[in-house]
Amino acid sequence: MARTETSTHCPYCALQCGMKLRPVTDGGVVEVVERTGFPVNRGALCGKGRTAPAVLASGVRLTGPLVRDAGGELAPASWDEALGRVADGLRGTRAEHGADAVGVFGGGGLTNEKAYALGKFARVVLGTSQIDYNGRFCMSSAAAAHQRAFGLDRGLPFPLEDIPRTGCVILVGSNLAETMPPALRYLTELRENGGRLIVVDPRRTRTAEQADLHLAPRPGTDLALALGMLHLVVAEGRVDEEFVRTRTNGWDEARASAMAHWPELVERLTGVSVPRLREAVEMFCGAEDGMVLTARGPEQQAKGTDTVGAWINFCLATGRAGRPLSGYGCLTGQGNGQGGREHGQKADQLPGYRKLTDPAARRHVAGVWGVDPDSLPGPGRSAYELLDALGRDVRSLLVMGSNPVVSAPHAGHVEERLRSLDFLAVADVVLSETAELADVVLPVTQWAEESGTTTSLEGRVLLRQRAVTPPPGVRSDLEVLHALAGLLGHGKGFPADPEEVFDELRRASAGGPADYAGITYARIAAEDGVFWPCPDEDHAGTPRLFLERFATDDGRARFVPVTHRAAAEETDAEYPVVLTTGRVVSQYQSGAQTRRVAELNAAAPGPFVELHPRLAERIGVAEGEDVAVTSRRGRAVAPARITVGIRQDTVFMPFHWPGAGRANSLTNPALDPVSRMPEFKVCAVRVEAAG
Ligand code: SF4
Question: Which residue spans adopt a coiled-coil conformation according to this UniProt entry (predicted)?
Answer without folding.
Answer: none
